[in-house]
Amino acid sequence: MPKFFDEMYRDHAGSVRPHYQEFEAWLAEQACEAIAQKRAEADLVFRRVGITFAVYGNDAGTERLIPFDIIPRIIPAAEWAKLEKGLKQRVLALNMFIHDIYHEQHIVQAGVIPPEQIFRNAQYRPEMQGITVASDIYAHIAGVDIVRAGAGEFYVLEDNLRVPSGVSYMLEDRKMMMRLFPELFARHKVAPIDHYPDLLLENLRSVAPLGIADPTVVVMTPGMYNSAYFEHAFLAQQMGVELVEGKDLFVNDNAVFMRTTQGPKRVDVIYRRIDDDFLDPLAFRAGSSLGVPGLLSVYRAGRVTLANAIGTGVADDKSIYPYVPDMIRFYLSEEPILNNVPTYQCRKKEELEYTLANLAQLVVKEVHGAGGYGMLVGPAATKQQIEDFRQRVLAHPEGYIAQPTLALSACPTYVESGIAPRHIDLRPFVLSGKSMTMVPGGLTRVALTEGSLVVNSSQGGGTKDTWILEN
Amino acid sequence: MLSRTADHLFWMARYTERAENTARMLDVNMQTSLLPQSAQSAEQGWRATLSISELQHMFDHKYAVLTPRDVLDFMVRDPANPSSIASCLTQARENARAVRGSLTTEVWETLNASWLEMQPLLQGQALERDPSQFFEWVKHRSHLSRGVTIGTMLKDEAFYFIRLGTFLERADNTARLLDVKFHGAQDGMAANGTGDGAEQPLDFYYWAALLRSVSGFEIYRKVYRDVITPARVAALLMLRADMPRSLLACMDEVVANLQAVSNDMSADTERLAGKLHAQLRFARLDDILADGLHDYLTAFLEDVFELGNRVSRDFMMPLAA
């Protein structure tokens, strides 16, 4: 494993980065037992509040907590300012891209992106072609995964434009830190994030169908057995709107209604936390009972807003990812502020050759893969695995991309053996409506196993509070 | 409010109230079983607790003979018994979880914490060693969830459906408790008597236990300042509007909360609730006893059941369009 960037320590001799000095000094004063007690308290509170995830059953054991680490990830104001600017630029371009490909397709005509990359993409939805959506916004809520690598540069790892999760943990982690260590907030100027639900509601209201003065917004969930159910319920509650399931909604007279104790009530904006495939059994997956029959026809008529829009997945795909910097140049005539991870597209002859020649150093991913499946991590693979993958890539080169193995930055983290560096990433959330807004922060995920780069909560990853320091 | 949400809130409250009532009933039976009495009458007491909840059949299906220990286990922690305290608290929590966005954080956390705390309490021998302590805990948690509901929730539909569930369930439970105790008492003493019924000390304990099960013993003393008679117990638990667990007090709340959520379909349901309320409000105990208390309570229970069904139909499963 190459040497990694440490968020707190400048070098292994222990020189502390300026924005961590105050915290480090505080930490040094703390007794081990006191910290252990605070951590136990956090677990208890998270369980009582029911901030749990994963498969749900009747036994207490099947509701799992996401481990919460009490050492915050701190980002100085200047770094955040650049990140924020870059994120807004990126999401703006992505929204313009989605609008373009479902309308005139200028970017294809200009030869920037090959048409088959878009129209043969499984996430491309022909149903969206030519449809008008409010304010031309498609990805109302984007969760962009950012990593730091090398000497500390930020890279965008993935654009999540469908139903990105994690914002509830971002907010709950902050609440927990303020509750456990109020004195820390007196010593630091940490930018507040609690107004996220207000921004979200404002954002959703701003994209209601034309002519609706006082729109009714709902959050739509697949139900309480979904792993992100806590977040769905949390957001509905924080915004003061109904949390609905498919069976609570119905379509009549070219409008969507919810069943209420006072009879049917019209719904204007649906923040849906359910995938395209399950939205409307008449249009997509027929067997699904999670959706609302007829929803698509109302949507196409512009009489209800879905956030995020149908068909946004075409833009957060690994095969489209390499083109995002070009999109920014194409639509905004600006240079991208944030870096992409260098990506080799095996569908291109030279890049395929480079990939095949360097398999042992690269991470190779399936274009449509997700959740860490169908992946080769070169440096960690056996000769046999590399050879097997070579055959797979050769048989179907357009199905693969390759990237250098990144040395993700690490942040000191409480683990069994004490405090030790663990790799982290960051997911900030960008809201797009009539305007673009963000709260200063994001969800920092941490890989709790030594050396591991896997931060996914389903694989035992934890979270940290993310502090953006104000100047 | 969403119909489904109303449904969950209603049942969340009913299950919480049911857990409390079961705890009250079992606790009282524990206390009376400590009195000197024949094995037969002791068993009768335990049988009565099963029959109040209409669980005799289910219990007999599972156990060949009746032992207090088995009844306790069955009524407290058996997951196969949908009315066991463990089942009720689990279902209350499940319903709350499904609509946690419609609850204040405090209400949700109270129900969730009850469920979490219950697990260790039911493990090991703690329940057998000190059942009363466990019942106290159940009552306390129920008080807490009711209190936190009143103390933190907006007085809107969500609140009214919760209250509706609470009082419909409580009306049902008080009526059952009365019915079984009076029914069981028919042999031993004249339940329709209006004279002093407490000649035998055991009878005194019997009625005192019934009063205690609804926190009514001290209230009885305060109201009557006299010996305990079955007729007065019945009057207190049925007709006194100021007795919080009486049928009249429950129906007061049912009528008021129903009115607060009234919709285009609910006129008949409100009429039924109003009728039940008026019957209690203007009843004379002598007339009820003359016609037969058991018949009266049986009819009342049927009406409460019908009322529950109507609430579901009018508010929780409305037609699509």
From TrEMBL, chain A:
<dbReference type="Pfam" id="PF14403">
    <property type="entry name" value="CP_ATPgrasp_2"/>
</dbReference>
<protein>
    <submittedName>
        <fullName>Circularly permuted type 2 ATP-grasp protein</fullName>
    </submittedName>
</protein>
<dbReference type="InterPro" id="IPR051680">
    <property type="entry name" value="ATP-dep_Glu-Cys_Ligase-2"/>
</dbReference>
<feature type="domain" description="Circularly permuted ATP-grasp type 2">
    <location>
        <begin position="72"/>
        <end position="447"/>
    </location>
</feature>
<dbReference type="InterPro" id="IPR016450">
    <property type="entry name" value="UCP005522"/>
</dbReference>
<dbReference type="InterPro" id="IPR025841">
    <property type="entry name" value="CP_ATPgrasp_2"/>
</dbReference>
From TrEMBL, chain B:
<dbReference type="Pfam" id="PF04168">
    <property type="entry name" value="Alpha-E"/>
</dbReference>
<feature type="domain" description="DUF403">
    <location>
        <begin position="1"/>
        <end position="316"/>
    </location>
</feature>
<protein>
    <submittedName>
        <fullName>Alpha-E domain-containing protein</fullName>
    </submittedName>
</protein>
<dbReference type="InterPro" id="IPR051680">
    <property type="entry name" value="ATP-dep_Glu-Cys_Ligase-2"/>
</dbReference>
<dbReference type="InterPro" id="IPR007296">
    <property type="entry name" value="DUF403"/>
</dbReference>
